[in-house]
Amino acid sequence: MRTWFWTLLLTTVAVACAVKLQELGGNVLVFVGHTRIQVSLAFVVLAVLLSFVLLYMGLRLLVWLTEIPLRIRDWHLRRLVRRDHELLELGWTELLEGRYAKAEKDLTKVVGRSRNASQQVLAALSAARAAHAMSEFDRRDKLLEQAEAKAANDVSLSDAVAAAAADLLLDQGYAQQALDRLAPLQAKGARHLHTMRLLLRAYRQLNRHDQVFALARSLNRRSALSDVEATQLIEFSAAARIRESMDNGQWREVWKDLSISEKTLPEIALAAAVAFESIGELDEASKVLEQSLAVAFDTRILAAYARAEPSQTARRLLKAEAWLTSKPHDAELLATLGMLCLAGQIWGQAEHYLQRSLKQRDDSRVHALLGSLYDRLGRKEEAASQWRRATNVAASLPPIIQDSVLPAADTREDPDFLKGEVWDELHDFDSVPLGAGDAGTPLNASAAHASVANASAPSVTLANGYDADDEFFDSAPVAGLGQPATVTAIKRATNPDNENLPDKQN
Q1: pLDDT score, position 230
Q2: Ranges for the HemY N-terminal domain (predicted)?
Q3: Cα–Cα dist 245/243, whole Å
Q4: How many domains is the chain partitioned into structurally?
């Protein structure tokens, strides 16, 4: 548009000048020595204009010729910058794709040959992140040092290096070193969202609950933290602050600093209830738990509500029975009522509520409570039954088959079968009842005869080279009884006359 405007303007001026010169119709007389030159005025004007244009073009050509080396140098620099920029983009792409080794290699090249400080810092930080992803922490630290040195004269780049280094250190678990990196940003009062998130991560790792609480609130107000995550952080940090300050009595200040909605969060309510109970304010403890239960029926709050002091049992029973009208099938609430009745020694109602709770959900804790109740009432069989059920529910034991026996061992493939006199000896021994010698009962005639024969019989050697007295009945030990006994040991056990028989090692 501008070109058309200037073209139109110059054309208009030229036409106007031509018309004016034609109207004047004058001549210009030029004397050069003895020579006289007479030309028209229009010709003179055109000659002057043409001379000006030629002079201007000549000067421009001269300048262009003298600037050729500069233009070549600038072209070379632009080419290098474009190449470094393309390599930097390639490194970032490889970093995002997860090709960390290739990304670190390309980005390190940019750090070494780029003449742009900002580009060098960005490449060094990206290469440090790639090295960190490969757990090459020494190379990462060297790259961070290079980035810090090149960003020393630029405040914004220095802040970027500090934030990036803190992020990598937090990933590695070095929260205190990350805080040291972020200290300059804190000193300048930086309120960047990324910096605040890094501080939150560091304080969480260091369990500095005061700072976690403050940062979670601030980030939530700025919509930089979701409501769910902020609520969790506020809940656990505030509860930890209350527990930590119970010894010095500062927990009341923490409690007063909380909003109404924050006081009803389960962890905070539990910690506050314990704090109030520790100083004897049982009514306040009950009120805190009741306010939390009015918002949401949390099992942890119900369990704490069921552990009532004797002076609070009646009050909590009335409250729990009122809640039962709106939640008649809540198993946890029924179990809580049962525990409160047990605390108040209302045995019948306790049994009623606990059994109703079991109808809604099979719970080992409720079975154990019923077992304790039946044991106190003298109903031993029912108590034992409830305790067994509690064990089965808690441990998920497999069913045990009753009256089952193991099958007899197959001895048909045994290498050395007892024969001859040893077999007769063992056959006679089988007729002796087990424990007859120990009980003092006289042996029958055949057994006594066998005992005398055993005492006088010579040792018989089997085919495998062992004596008959040393041969085992079975090659496998009985489960739970160790190694099987030898014939000599059995003789000693059944006949006192054989006590002096020598032992023979297998």
Answers
A1: 94
A2: 26-134
A3: 6
A4: 2
